[in-house]
Design goal:
95 residues; alpha+beta; 22% helix
Length: 95
């Protein structure tokens, strides 16, 4: 999707700088070039993560990765802005 802007939640960016994670950085680099890469899925369609949709009432939210290591992001099709909101590290949500 040409023209898509990618942003990272500031608290998550600070966390990722303080706790480098090769897999999450690789996924972030991929999201910067491909907003819906293979392996990403809507939180609405994922029974394990569906409850997180309530945190993002204004946007559709997606998960990119595994249950142990992933990025949670939203996409606004009106503005073509993708925001990486949270990370899953060792199965736990981070900023």
């Amino acid at each position: 999707m040409p023209g898509t802007a990618t942003r990272v939640n500031p608290a998550l960016a600070a966390y990722l700088l303080a706790h480098p994670d090769h897999e999450l950085r690789r996924r972030l680099a991929i999201l910067r070039t491909i907003p819906f890469p293979p392996g990403s899925r809507s939180l609405d369609a994922d029974a394990d993560w569906h409850a997180l949709t309530a945190r993002f009432p204004e946007h559709r939210a997606f998960l990119y990765g595994t249950p142990r290591s992933a990025l949670v992001y939203t996409y606004d099709s009106r503005t073509e802005v993708l925001v990486v909101e949270l990370a899953v590290v060792d199965g736990q949500l981070r900023p």
